[in-house]
Amino acid sequence: MLLSLYRSLRSYRGFILGSVQREFQARYRNSLFGALWPIFNPLSMIIVYTVIFSHIMRARLPGVADGMAYSIYLCAGLLAWGLFSEITLRSQNMFLDNANLLKKISFPRICLPVIVLINAGINFAIIISLFLGFLLITGRWPGIALLALIPLIALQMMFCAGLGMVLGVLNVFFRDVGQLFGICLQFWFWLTPIVYPITILPEWLQSLLRFNPLTNLIASYQNVFLYGQWPAWSSLLPAFMIGAVFCAIGLRLFRQRVGEMVDEL
Amino acid sequence: MGHIRVTGLGKAYKQYPSRWSRLAEWLIPFSRLRHNRHWVLKDLTFEIPAGQAVGIVGVNGAGKSTLLKMITGTSRQTCGTIELTGRVAALLELGMGFHPDFTGRQNAVMAGQLLGMQLEEINALMSQIESFAEIGAAIDHPVRTYSSGMQMRLAFSVATARRPDILIVDEALSVGDAYFQHKSFERIRSFREAGTTLLIVSHDRSAIQSICDTAILLDGGRLAMHDRPEAVMDYYNALLAEREGQIVRQEMLGGGHVQTVSGTGEAGIVRVRLLDESERLIEAAEVGQPVVLAVDVEVRQDIERLVLGFMIKDRLGQPMYGINTHRQNQALENLRAGERINYRFAFVMGLGKGNYSVALSLSRLDSHLDRNFEWRDFGLVFHVINNRREDFVGCSWLNAQTTISRHTEVGHVEHTP
To answer: For chain A, what is the domain count?
Structure first.
């Protein structure tokens, strides 16, 4: 089954790459600055957080005197969260948004999640490289530990793809899923240490947040960028397991329901 | 390549009594099925050999589109199997997925990719696509500036850039203007000659009869008939007029013709004859010969109004000439049971040589769809031969009178044959 999915993806690689390319073109087609916009957006985010938090609000990470530290902590978390929310939100609507195409044209449906993943990956790559440029300029280059980003991103992509697939299929049959997940995402964001460091929480709440698979994942990003620290790989095991389960459920749902889906669109 | 075999095909949509019952069915393990199945297609079995052209007919809602969707693969069958060999292309939704902000060329690339082509393939085909679409420099303008006809042209050109093994055509789509319709039809025809299997959905009798080898009639989601196009179209016409109390029967005539008779039977056709000038019965008429089509009608119940119509059709079933007494302002009124009426239609045989059949209808008004007393296909079969006139081509004898003049520089000499 995986083999046949791979084969259809391979034979439709032209469509997948074309769609990714077109999505970028479509977004900035009638704008004067075109390709610069995907750079301006994250750049402004980095600047805003740095200026506001470290210089105006003078927020400090506990135990670190450096003013830049908090904004790097914040940016690292927000970047990783951005990847997560982009993939899941886009995945949950990928079948609904392409209803017309799905109803009228026969092509391997598995192309759609792949397009979402590649798109999000490219967006993320743009932001990460800007962020790295920022780190280089401010003299906070994390060093060799950056290599840890590769497995981290792979793990996160897998987690998001699995969850996204489950949401995407369910959303076709139960439109409540989309609404519900939007709300969940709000809570999830604040229940993940992104804006605040986990250490400011009481002990019992900290141990509760450890059940959130994103807590350790995002902490790993923060440690890489802030301290140049390698992730504690064993702490990522739960995220990996849950991601694998999502993928398995997602693929199963997809396979069972892909035919029925067209009737519901 | 291009073979289609459909076995026991069925399609049902799930209908849940409430929104929650689907959730219950999904979540509760080993739960009973909580949905009803609404069957739109059932027990379809047929086989189409490679290279054949098959028409699919049926009233709206008979399941034609559902069948095509399953053959193209967009919709999945509930039961049964579809076996296909070769590449399928569908001209069902032309221009689907065109993005208005992109140029025609970019959209052509995208449409090609949706069909599973790689960029190099599309680029290789691009000049051919451009020249077939004939939209000129507009190919590099955004599609939002296109007229719908231009969009259709481009979409058709992309969809048919490669010859598919199976081509599915929804005839409802009319591709652009008359010129392009001819051109696209020519392309479909050339595909067919090269061995492409054709599946055509159409309500147009002449389209089906002129292209198709066989036709499939769907009625209420079932295969009602799979036979030669004429027989199927006759049966379909009869079905259209069918109402409570109407009978439809078909008989095999000699020469492989199937006679379809339907109607409510208040009046009936007793005898149909073709006569020559001296009232002799003939089976073959000469081109240009004066003939009489004599029809005897019997009235079985009192009816207020009666119209007799006849239609001469060629061997493909294409109408050559048809008229009825309503249009000739000779409809009869207030008829009593037991009356017999003799109709005589006298005309000069202006048809070319070949086999023709006559279909007849007895109705109340102009169309047999209102009240159909009797509809009879193949009421009469006759030949037209050409021994006396010059050997012309085509199905109408226009009896051209020719005048030719030749001119030289010195003066001119007129010559009349």
So the answer is: 1
